[in-house]
Amino acid sequence: MTYEENNLNEMLKLRREKLNKLREMGRDPFKIEKYEVTHHSKYIIDNFDEMEGKFVSVAGRIMSKRGHGKASFIDIQDSEGRIQVFVKVNLIGEEEYEIFKTYDIGDIIGVKGEVFKTKKGEISVKAQEIVLLTKSLQILPEKFHGLKDPDLRYRQRYVDLIVNPEVKQTFILRSKIIKAVREYLDNKGFLEVDTPILNTIAGGAAARPFITHHNTLDIDMYLRIANELYLKRLIVGGFDKVYEMGRMFRNEGMSIKHNPEYTAIELYQAYADYEDMMKLTEELVAYVAEKALGTTKINYQGKEIDLTPPWNRMSMEEAVKKYAGVDFSEINTDEEALKIAKEKGIEIKPGMTRGHVINELFEEYAEEHLVQPTFITHHPVEVSPLAKRNPDDPRITNRFEAFINTWEIANAFSELNDPIDQRQRFIEQLKQREAGDDEAHMMDTDFLNALEVGLPPTGGLGIGIDRLIMILTNQSSIRDVILFPTMKPVDNK
Fold first, then answer.
1. 163-311+372-480 maps to which CATH number?
2. What is the pLDDT of residues 236-266, one digit of tens each?
3. What positions does the entry give for Mg(2+) 2 binding (predicted)?
C-alpha cells in the first residue's frame, strides 16, 4: 500500500470515528429528518440590500474551512451557489464550537444566523446556531485539482456536480432546452403522447436493438430503437399532430456522439410534407436557442454557428457532386456506381446499389463540410424504407436530414403511406437482413395493416435531443449532457 493510500484510509477511518463520537453524545446526524430552509445563497447575495441584518436559515455542504482560535469562516454550497458563514465561539457557545471544529469538508450543515457583510466586503451569514445534518464519510477531491478524470466524473456524477459547479449549469440548461422544445410544439397544437418502450418488433429505424425475453409470453422483445411506427398508427387513428420525447436504445458503438441510451423526439403531422417539416425544424431550433440562450448565433468549440432561419438546402446528389466530384445525373446503373465506389475507396458490400453508393459517398466526403445548419434532401430510396418516393424521380425520396457542426441532428420525410410499396420495401429490407445486415428493418405486419386502413399524407420528423443540447451548451461529448451515461462496470475484484 502506498503512502497516499494509507493516508487516505486513515482519513476515512477518522471520519467514521467522529461519527461514532457524535452518536455516543446522542447527536447522530442521520436521525435528523428535516431542516427548515428559509433562503438560498443566490437570493441572499443578489438581494443583500434587502437581506442585510435579517435572520435566515440556510443549509448546504461545507466546501472550505479557514480560521483558527475562537473564530472561523466556512463556505457552504447549496443548490444555487455558495455563501460564506462566520462562526464565532461567543455566538454559538464553547461546547458547540468545539463540536463544530470537528466538522469536515463535505459535511452537510444547517445554519441559522444574521446576514451581514465582512470588513473585506463579502456577504456572509453570522451563525448563531449550526446543526450537522449529514456526516460525509468520503473525501471530496481537493479544491485546486478538483475532479478532472472524465471517466471518474461520469461514474460519480454526484461528486462531479458538487466540485464542478459549471456541470450543474449544463444540466439546468438541458432542462430549459427540453422545456422549450415542448413549449414550441404545444403552442403549435401538437399532442404529447406515450408509446411502448418494450416492443415485439424493432422498427422505425436502421439500427441494432437490445434484446430481452418476456418469460410469461415466452417471446423475445426489443427495447425501442425509434417510436415512429406507433406514432404513425396514431395518425391513422385520427390524431392530426402528435409527438413523443423520450429514451431510445441502440445496441451499437459508443463515441462522443453516441450513447446506447439517448433522448430523441419524433413528431408527425397529418396533411403535411417534408417541406413543412423543414420549416418546423429550423423554427423549432431557433426558438429553443432564443429561449435557452437568448440568441440564435452561438459559438461551438470555437466555431461561430448561425441558427437563424432559413437554413441552407442541398440535395444529396448535389452534395456528392460538390464534395466528392461525382455527378450522378450521368450515372444510371448499379454497375457504373459500384465502379466509381471502388475508385473512391468505398467498401463494396453485398447487395449494394447505385443508391447505396450515393449515400456512402455523401457520408465519406460531404458530411465533414456541413458546419452551418444545412438540410440535405432527396435521399435514395434504398436507405429510406419509410419515406415517400419523389414523384419526378422514383429512385429518390422526399426526405431530409438536418446537419449542424457536421452532425446529423434531425431526420424527416414525407411519410410513405402506400401499403403496397411499403410491403415491398420491407421485403427488400428482409433480404438485406438475410444477407447479414442486422440493422435492416424487420417486417411489421400490423403496421402494414394500419397503412391499409389508411394513413393520410403525413410529414414526420425526428430530432436527436442530446446532440442538439451538446451544440447549444458547447459540450464536446454526449456524456457531458447525459447525467448518467452508460459506462463499463468497474472490476472491483
1. 3.30.930.10
2. 999 999 999 999 999 998 999 999 999 999 9
3. 408
